[in-house]
Amino acid sequence: MSEHEPIGVVGLGWVGLVTAACFAELGHRVVGREIEADKVEALRSGEMPFHEPGLAEMVARNAERLEFTTELEPLGSTRLVFICVGTPPTHSGDADLSAVFAAVEELAGDDSPALVMKSTVPVGTGRQIKARAPGAEYVSCPEFLREGSAVKDFLEPDRVVVGADPGDEAAAEQVAALYQPLGAPIVSTDTASAEMIKLASNAFLATKISFINEIANVCDEVGADVTEVARGMGLDDRIGPRFLQAGLGYGGSCFPKDVSALKVLAGNSGYHFQLLSSVIEVNELQKRRLLSKLTKHLGSLEGKRIALLGLAFKPDTDDMREASSLVLASRLEGEGASVSAYDPVAEEVASELLPTVSMTSSATEALDGADAAVLVTDWPEFGEIDWPDAARRMRTPVLVDGRNFLDPVALRSAGFTYEAIGRPSEGE
Ligand code: UGA
What is the pLDDT of residue 283? Predict the structure, then answer.
């Protein structure tokens, strides 16, 4: 593929917009197509549809190479089109592929560009697409970027997976060549295996999180410290230190959806994926366990005010999908408590989802007069709070650290009753 031939991207959500911006950063011309006209208008004027560090600057820097459009026609001049549309779960837990199939139907034809699938799809989707559009070349190229560090993850990947079936090797080579400057290992494989690598990777990481959360729950019972346990485990190369942070469970648009999609995919094929049922159940229970830590110190929660620090499913994003805060706030209100909350960027998105929660514009305001606080998202700015001052402002200085983020010694010397997840309480 010549450098002058533009790359197409369909769907300008997290994956699509980051893909478009990063390929432009690598020197390619990119045509990004999005059906929501408002989004395209906003992008043309430099406004980002979501919070992602470094993305707005990258889009601005590469404005000359980036074209945003609602039309399909400009994609006709491209050689490769990356499909980056959403695949949300259906009621049955399967992935909803309607947006994927709509994009394929629009694009596939005799003279069509090769289709490169970045959306997370069930294993077998590539073969289904080839059956629907036999004339189009098809490559599976799953994305492994994380929200909040998406730009860095795209430009510094651990690996690039390129899956193609016989007949589509030329398109696969072109996709591999696009990523070659990034210097990462390229895994060239068939489409079904590429699709499985994506689902299995997310399911494995989610399993690691549920595993360490269960270890934390046992630590709570026996007086061990899960952060020490994770440190000791993580130094074993075979285990590795990452994704061993115990807390309120995983959220976001990917792990919950993909773990359930893999479980359902296995079930539909006649295999009961027992382990994943437990991973999901542990994660659901983890969001609720925190209540008992509050009642231990406050007794009944009826009439109490609880401050939530952070609402997004993780720091550096305003994404509230499957955020632990949603379950936690509803459970607290269900117990008769009122909830105040502060998040550095997710307030606007969160207000619609949590209309009865009183949103504040600073952590201090959320903590003022509260009976207890819960740290829900490990935003770096929560490490900078003046805790002795916060202890004085609160009605009772009780803090449950849902991400094991703060220093227990500093919090206790600031006057707090400090509880974490899987770490000994005071006096234990
Ligand atoms: C995840 C994967 O990490 C990416 O590789 C993948 O590309 C992406 O899904 C996707 O399929 O699109 P993301 O959902 O953005 O990325 O966020 P993560 O950083 O993986 O965090 C997911 C959740 O796990 C968060 O709620 C986080 O707080 C939680 N987590 C993470 C833990 O509770 N403990 C940990 O040790 C790590």
Answer: 97
CA gap 25, 118 in Å, rounded: 19
Within a 10 A sphere around the Cβ of 330, how many other Cβ atoms?
A: 15
* Ligand 1 center to 318 CA (angstroms): 14
Q: Whose CA is nearest to atom 3 of ligand 1?
A: 146
End-to-end CA distance of the chain: 64
Give the pLDDT score at 72. 87
What pLDDT score was predicted for residue 4?
67
Task: Write out the two tokens for 360.
Answer: 């504040």
What's the pTM value of the predicted model, to 2 decimals?
Answer: 0.95
- The chain-wide mean pLDDT, for the chain, equals 95
**426 Cα: distance to centroid of ligand 1 (angstroms):** 31
252 lines ligand 1 (CB under 6 A): yes
For 365, counting Cβ atoms within 10 Å of its Cβ (0-12 exposed, 13-18 middle, 19+ buried), the class is middle
Closest ligand 1 atom to 15 CA = 12
Q: What is the pLDDT of residue 428?
A: 61
Calpha distance 88→80 (Å, rounded): 24
Residue 175, SS3 per DSSP = helix
Both tokens assigned to 204: 């494995």
Report the pLDDT value the prediction gives residue 368, as an integer from 0 to 100. Answer: 97
Cα separation, 295 vs 301, whole angstroms: 7
Ranges of residues in the chain whose predicted pLDDT is under 50: none
Question: For residue 10, how far is the Cα from the chain centroid?
Answer: 20
Kindly report the protein residue whose alpha carbon is nearest to atom 25 of ligand 1: 250
